[in-house]
Write a structure and sequence with these properties.
The complex is a heterodimer of chains A (115) and B (115). Chain A is mostly beta strands and 115 residues long. Chain A has no helices and 11 strands. Chain A is globular and about 40 Å long. Chain B has strands at residues 4-7, 10-14, 19-25, 32-38, 45-51, 56-59, 62-67, 72-77, 86-94, 102-105, 109-114. Chain B is mainly beta. Classes of the chains: A mainly beta (115), B mainly beta (115). The A-B interface holds A 4, 31, 40-45, 48, 50, 55-56, 58, 91, 95, 98-109 and B 4, 6, 31-32, 34, 36, 42-46, 49, 51, 89, 91, 93, 96-108.
């Protein structure tokens, strides 16, 4: 099966600019996750969708980050305005359900550099 | 909130030796513990997982053990090979915030297998 797709793979912006990332999950996967992975750290969950509804966004900095999953398939994550500390790899993952022990499949990530 | 600690942060072994990575978690309700391997610049990939009703699980050269009483779990790699070199992340499922499949990741272990 095709994996999780993300674009762009790399993005360099200046602080205070805006940026958007796109994710296409594995076909049929109901649950979609966005993670932030800062260099040298493990992924940190930003937001979890079940179909097109938000399950958990407790660690999403809502003053600058937003995400949507219209129609319950593709998703976009936006940062506006970006800060230096937002430099990280943004990973999208999907799973067939939001169940307790369902494997999450990760996309290749988008490496964001904020200068 | 839930916290997962991982040790060591770096591990260097000779080819053929064994490698052990240890993690502890804080949420006693956690019941699913996956391990991910992440090669440089690539996506995390699930290599093995264990559920709380099992104390040990093995898959060829990889094994994971779980001690729920002590709230720690470990990854064991035997007969290491250079292609095992990567960053390994442990994770624990947490239900904090009502999320059904929220993974909390450790900080990662950089494993280097010297030929």
């Amino acid at each position: 099966e095709a994996g999780v797709a993300q674009s762009p793979r790399y993005k360099i912006i200046e602080k205070r600019q805006s940026v958007a990332f796109w994710c296409n999950p594995i076909s049929g996967h109901a649950t979609l996750y966005w993670y932030q992975q800062i260099l040298g750290q493990g992924p940190k969950l930003l937001i979890q969708f079940q179909n097109n509804g938000v399950v958990d966004d407790s660690q999403l900095p809502k003053d600058r980050f937003s995400a949507e999953r219209l129609k319950g398939v593709d998703s976009t994550l936006k940062i506006q305005p970006a800060k230096l500390e937002d430099s990280a790899v943004y990973l999208c993952a999907s799973s067939s359900t939001g169940g307790a022990e369902t494997e999450q499949y990760f996309g290749p990530g988008t490496r964001l550099t904020v200068t | 909130g839930e916290n997962v600690e991982q040790h060591p942060s770096t591990l260097s072994v000779q080819e053929g030796d064994s490698a052990v990575i240890k993690c502890t978690y804080s949420d006693s309700a956690s019941n699913y513990f996956p391990w991910y391997k992440q090669e440089l610049g690539k996506r995390p990939q699930l290599i093995i997982d264990i559920r709380s009703n099992v104390g040990e699980k093995k898959d060829q050269r990889i094994a994971v053990t779980l001690n729920k009483t002590a709230k720690h779990f470990s990854l064991h790699i035997t007969e290491t090979q250079p292609e095992d070199s990567a960053v390994y992340f442990c994770a624990a499922k947490s239900q904090y915030g009502g999320a059904t499949n929220k993974l909390i990741f450790g900080t990662g272990t950089l494993l280097a297998v010297q030929p």
